TrEMBL record:
GO terms for cellular component: Golgi membrane; plasma membrane. It comes from Helianthus annuus (Common sunflower). UDP-alpha-D-glucose binds at residues 113, 142. Its main location: Golgi. The keyword Transmembrane applies. The active site is at residues 142, 441. This is Cellulose synthase (UDP-forming).
Length: 727
């Protein structure tokens, strides 16, 4: 059980670290061996004729970059850290002094983030196994939609029955949508009756919300149900409206007479001539508004599609903050992003399995994970700019004695969410979340680390939050384009970990941040390696040593061991063999399209944009997704690039097969001995792209690659390969 001074959490180092370090050393030796080969060996005469030595130089530059990038990736595999919490000790020592917790749920557009999904997330966090009088839930509606507000008023009424049901039967998950989707009929008679009643109330709420959504407006008779609807008029639009603050629950009781959490709706002011700073601006408005209503010292923020899947999550997080020995060092506790709709074999690599099970544990071992913008508990004072000074512990009992004031008028609260409030202030700079980047969460977390704080990654056996992953290739590529573009902007900004973090954080943590900041620049050597060796295979120009050469050994070692390591690591993280193969395909597509266009957009200075991923999927797309058929279906530069590079590899491979058929046996043997690495690379790319080729030439459904993209890809591939062949 542990005594009074027993820690509330323990830290464990991963097993097998020494063995991995030995393996990593052998890989590094092979990488250096390859660099020496490129630097000291003369390229074959066929590679330099006509002044084309750039093929060889380009390979050297690509291998130099990829080798150095691989070194960076080892920073998250050098010292992985795992955490374990002791919630019973927390309850024994602090049950009556537990701090207040403010929970922020963010949504932006009811068309792509359905209000039914949003309020289900709100209900799931209202139902935490935590004293309800110490919970306050805030919904930030950046779309300022009366539809979302209506859904929240309906959820308010339903919560009076839902929370007692969750409490009495200790159900999981506590998102009603997720619960009724997966729950079977209870065997207990009393439970079965209550289950029937609560499901009936849920279906009635769902019908009311969906009827209003189908109408596209709240009917006049329903507007009379809540005075808050007077905030909307015929001139209100998502990008032009006054601030709206509505306290829906405050010291209310549920159907059993127990307290309900506070529930607040916020739509900050939007005007066309004021830049609103996307989600970071919404979060900062929430921080200010909540400070006047509940002022919880701990803040949890979740995206509207990431519902609570574990009712103990708050208590787990508090084990880190409240720990007497180390809690004063911790600024935020980051939970992993997990997804309920990922297929068995992860057709789009949507689970981010290795990122969750490897990278973030490694980041934790280096001083703390990145803040990823959802599923994260923060200390309020640190978000407001406090630096670590060694005396940063919180007296939780004193915090618990805080008396809430009800003196703030609605107009005073609205002023905190106005467009002009932040002018000539430190908000977005030294206070709150940082502005000026699509991945504002990452630079916010980095600045916290640079002020001396640590963070913790906690990955419980039962996922804390479950969300919705991308269900089409285009969604996946667009999402990663935004992330990688934002990470590159961080690298080029004053917050670059390369210099902003220098001397302030662990060098290993700087290397870890750089892994993500360099996603988009890494597209260039990947594209080069995906194209040039295949073209040289077609032309018969060797860029790699022959099988009989001693220089062949490091290339063979790298290909075999890195592939085997990636495969075994993926399986160790709970994946499948087919899932690993799908993950490799998506890795290639992201590197050769999303990251490449992110790099180009950054160089060309395109407008800073924030893309919201749609959570709505039609039935045909859903059916194909469940069958793990890749969904192309749209014509875009990203899809065209992926298709063109894939076609280029197919043209080169088919061309080589045809050439080899015309060779005599001896010539063919010498050719394959000389071009062995080329054949392996090109062949692997062709096999990897089989689903794409089927979408180009075989499939007839709406998820196939559009004919316009097919024509572009085939024409470009034939043109490039022909020009290269005759150079």
């Amino acid at each position: 059980m542990g005594g009074e001074n027993s820690p509330l959490f323990e830290t464990q180092r991963a097993k097998g670290r020494k063995l991995h370090r030995v393996f990593a050393t052998t890989v590094l030796v092979s990488i250096i061996w390859i660099w020496v080969y490129r630097a000291t060996q003369q390229p074959p005469s066929t590679a330099v004729s006509g002044g084309r030595s750039w093929w060889w130089t380009g390979m050297f530059m690509a291998e130099l970059w990829l080798g150095l990038y691989w070194v960076l990736t080892q920073s998250v595999r050098w010292n992985p850290t795992y955490r374990r919490t002791f919630k019973q000790r927390l309850s024994q020592r602090y049950e009556h002094q537990l701090p207040r917790v403010d929970i922020f749920v963010c949504t932006a557009d009811p068309k792509i983030e359905p209000p039914m999904m949003v309020v289900s997330t709100v209900l799931s966090v209202m139902a935490y196994d935590y004293p309800p009088e110490k919970l306050s839930v805030y919904l930030s509606d950046d779309g300022g939609s009366e539809l979302t507000f209506y859904a929240l008023t309906q959820a308010t009424m339903f919560s009076k029955h839902w929370l007692p049901y969750c409490r009495n039967y200790k159900i999981e998950p506590r998102s009603p949508v997720a619960y009724f989707k997966s729950a079977s009929r209870p065997s207990n008679t009393k439970h079965d009756q209550d289950h029937t009643n609560i499901k009936k109330l849920f279906e009635e709420m769902k019908d009311r919300i969906e009827n209003v959504m189908n109408d596209g407006r709240v009917p006049d008779e329903l507007r009379l149900e809540h005075e808050g609807f007077t905030e909307w008029d015929s001139f209100t639009s998502p990008k032009d409206h006054a601030a709206i603050v509505q306290i829906l629950l405050d010291q209310n009781e549920d159907a059993e007479g127990k307290s309900l959490p506070k529930l607040v709706y916020l739509a900050r002011e939007k005007r066309p001539d004021h830049f609103h700073n996307f989600k970071a601006g919404a979060m900062n408005a929430l921080i200010r508004i909540s400070s006047k209503i509940s002022n919880g010292p701990i803040i949890l923020n979740v995206d509207c599609d990431m519902y609570s899947n574990n009712s103990d999550t708050v208590r787990d997080a508090l084990c880190f903050f409240v720990d007497e020995e180390k809690g004063h060092e911790i600024a935020f506790v980051q939970y992993p992003q997990c997804f309920e709709n990922v297929t068995k074999n992860e057709v789009y690599g949507g689970s981010m399995r290795v990122l969750r099970e490897v990278d973030f544990h490694g980041l934790d071992g280096n001083g703390g994970p990145l803040y990823v913008g959802t599923g994260c508990f923060h200390r309020r004072d640190i978000l407001l700019g406090k630096s670590f000074d060694g005396e940063s512990s919180i007296d939780w009992k004193m915090e618990n004695d805080h008396k809430e004031t009800q003196e703030n008028t609605t107009e005073e609260l609205k002023n905190l969410a106005s467009c002009t409030y932040e002018i000539d202030t430190e908000w977005g700079k030294e206070m709150g979340l940082k502005y000026g980047c699509p991945v504002e969460d990452v630079i916010t977390g980095l600045s916290i680390h640079c002020r001396g704080w640590k963070s913790v990654f906690y990955n419980p056996k039962r996922e804390a939050f479950l969300g919705v992953s991308a269900t089409t290739l285009d969604q996946t590529l667009v999402q990663h384009k935004r992330w990688s573009e934002g990470d590159l902007l961080i690298l080029l900004s004053k917050y670059s970990p390369a210099w902003y973090g220098l001397g302030k954080v662990n060098p290993g943590l700087i290397m870890s941040y750089l892994i993500y900041c360099l996603w988009s620049p890494s597209s260039v050597p990947t594209v080069y390696y995906s194209i040039v060796p295949s073209l040289c295979l077609l032309k018969g120009v060797p860029l790699f040593p022959a099988v009989t050469s001693g220089w062949f050994l490091p290339f063979a070692y790298i290909i075999v061991t890195i592939t085997a390591f990636d495969y075994l690591e993926f399986l160790r993280c709970g994946g499948t063999t087919k899932g690993w193969w799908n993950d490799r395909r998506i890795w290639l597509y992201k590197r050769t399209s999303s990251y490449l266009f992110a790099l180009l957009d950054t160089i060309l200075g395109s407008d800073l944009s924030f893309v919201i991923s749609s959570k709505v999927m039609d039935n045909d797309v859903q059916a194909r997704y469940e069958k793990e058929m890749m969904e192309f279906g749209v014509s875009s530069p990203l899809t065209t690039t992926v298709a063109t590079i894939s076609m280029l590899n197919l043209v080169c491979f088919v061309g080589v097969v045809m050439k080899s058929m015309l060779m005599d046996k001896v010539t063919r043997g010498v050719y394959y001995e000389t071009m062995a690495v080329h054949v392996v690379l090109c062949g692997a790319l062709v096999v990897l792209n089989m689903p794409l080729y089927r979408a180009l030439f075989v499939r007839k459904d709406k998820g196939k690659i559009p004919d316009s993209v097919t024509v572009k890809a085939v024409v470009l591939a034939l043109f490039i390969s022909t020009v290269f062949y005759f150079m």
